[in-house]
Structure formats: structure tokens, C-alpha cells
Amino acid sequence: MFRQLLRNAKERLRLLLAQRGRRVRVWRDRLRRQPDRIDPSLRFVPDFRYVYGEREARGLELLKEWLSPEQFAQYDAKSYFDVTGCQSGKRYRISHGTSMNIHELDGAGRPCVGWCFAPKGYLVAGDVMLAQKIALETDERGALGVANKFFVPTGRRNMLLH
Amino acid sequence: MATQIVMDRTGDTRHNFDAKNADALLKAEERFRELTGAGFTAAVRTASGEAVVKRTFDPNAEETLFFPRLVGG
Questions:
Q1: Angle of helix A69-78 relative to helix A2-33, nearest 10 degrees?
Q2: A71/A91 Cα distance (integer angstroms)
Q3: Per-residue burial over A144-154, b = 16 or more CB atoms within 10 Å of its CB, e = otherwise
Q4: Most CB atoms within 10 A, among A97, A107, B22, B65?
Q5: Buried b (16+ CB within 10 A) or exposed e, B36-48
Q6: What's the structural domain count of chain A?
Q7: Cβ contacts (< 8 Å) between B39 and chain A: which residues?
Q8: Per-residue pLDDT reduced to its tens digit, A78-124
Q9: How many domains are there within chain B?
């Protein structure tokens, strides 16, 4: 009886943490996307705030123009979007960011492997995500050929990404 | 008016040109060759919104996007 109660409480706590984790992630990504959010050490560089924000915004604008309606809605709500690899048919999740932001999804839609590749040079997040999307949708093998693979932990962290 | 969009550190640079003007078209083709020769990938969108990579210059493309060579992160 006591064990059953404990098990139920543990399961409820796990679900609650997963839910909260997802919310925190969405809010964190939203904050990151705000053009005003800049490195405080650069606060006093003239025009930095304007230029930085403008670049970020232009990158995101371009990305949104090229996303499919489904991807756009998903990105707008969750700060990530899914793409289908043109050769394997596998699904990949591209999260807002410029590195270590691609996760291959398993049959159940859970991240199983991480892939890291990006266009050469310094580009804003919107541009990087757009290049990653086009690469996976048009030349999946070529993109993964240059990419570095990284381990995605299973368990709670994996659950939060899901 | 057709556009070539080149991703760069400023976000992107856009080159607009009149596709009916032979000189402008020639210049756009030259830019296409220069960029792809430097490792950029050129992509266009189909009517359904799907991205397609172009290896050769497409004079009918309304919008061509160029992004730098991909590298492992």
C-alpha cells in the first residue's frame, strides 16, 4: 500500500518536472530570441545594441519566410521545428541556436542522437537554422557527413527535450 | 524583380535585379558562379514551398538563397 502510494507520488513528480522543464525551456528560448537580450559586457559599445538586434531579427525573418506553415507554427510555439531527412526519411528536431541544436528523433519522437553542423563563419541563429533545415531536406547524407555526433542522455533530460 | 540573398555576418545581403534585363542577368549569373565556386550552396523554393538546391544558375528563379559551406560543429 505504502509502496504503491510512493510509486504514484514519484510518477506524479516525474510528470510535473517534465512539464515544468518544457515550460522553462520554451521561456528560455523566447528570452534568447529577444533582440534586447545581449551580452552585458557589450552594453557600452556604441550602436552595438541596435546592430546586434537588427542582425538577429533579419536572420529570424528570413528563417520564417522559408519554413513550411507547420514548421513555422511549431517554431513559434516551441522554439524548435522538425524536418524530415530527404534520404533516410528520419526526423530531426532543430532547436533555436547555432550549435549542438539538432537532434535525431526515434520512432516515438524522442531525441536519440545529436548532430552538430553549421555554415562556416559567424552567422546569426536564424541563418544557421535555415541552412541546417535546407541541408537536411536536400542533402541529408552530405550534411551528416561533415557533422559531429553527440550523445543525448536518456532519462530525465531526454524526457525534457521530448 | 528577382533577388539573390547571401547569408553573412550582417544577417544577409540582398541583391535585387531585373531578370528581363540581359546585363543584370549576366551579373547575377556571375555572382552565382562566384559564390558557388567559393563553397556556397544555392537554394530556391518551389511553388509548394519546398527548398531545392541549384548547381547551375536558374534565370527564372525569383529568389535564390546562398549559404556558406557546412562544417562540423
A1: 110
A2: 13
A3: bebbeeeebee
A4: B65
A5: beeebbbbbbeee
A6: 1
A7: 120
A8: 999 999 999 999 999 999 999 999 999 999 999 999 999 999 999 99
A9: 1
Q: Which domain holds residue B63?
A: 2-67
Residue A126, number of CB atoms within 10 A of its CB: 26
**Option in A68, A100, A119 nearest B7 (CB):** A119
Task: Identify the CATH number of the domain in which residue B37 sits.
Answer: 3.10.20
Domain that holds residue A104: 2-161
Q: ipTM of the assembly?
A: 0.95
Cα B73-A102-A15 angle, rounded to 5 deg:
135
Measure the CA–CA gap between A82 and A68, rounded to whole angstroms.
10
C-beta separation of A132 from A102 below 8 A: yes
Report yes or no: A64 and A77 within 8 Å, Cβ to Cβ: no
Is-above-0.80 flag for pTM? no
Please indicate, yes or no, if residue B73 is contained in any of the structural domains. no
Q: How far is CA A146 from CA A102, A106, A140, in A?
A: 14, 21, 10
Q: B 5-64 residues with CB below 8 A of A?
A: 5, 7-12, 39, 41, 43, 45, 49-53
Whether B35 is in a domain gets the answer yes
